[in-house]
Amino acid sequence: MKRFSFRLQKLLDIREQIRDELRQELVRKNQQRDHELHVLAELEQESLRAMIEEGGTYSASDLVMFGDYRARLKRRIEEQRQRVVIASKEAEEVKERYVEASKEAKALELLRQKRKAEHTEQVLKEEGAQLDEFAIQRAPQRKEEGF
Questions:
Q1: DSSP secondary structure code for residue 54 in this structure
Q2: Domain containing 54: what range?
């Protein structure tokens, strides 16, 4: 039986490698986004704690410091929200590239499977033809032998 050889195997290998690298990058981007979301949640929790503590009685200087702290915390929360938005966009962009790379690799894999099935079918036909030819050649010998 002739050995199957897919002419586009190198291209398939490259596309699969690109897909795998993008999958790893997507995992990293999702982890980064999740980390940024976690930091944001912690900052928001800290803001809530600060609001609760603000209800007590404090001196004027304490209130000023508390107000400054809350203003810094509010800025940090806004900055962190921007980081979350950026991380989410980056993750979405990598996801889109990953999906496209997966489609390209899958298309080549399907083509390889189709070509392999065609090859197998062709080989089976050739083997059947050879067996028929062999049987035809043996037929006169069998008549002579009395079969």
A1: T
A2: 9-105
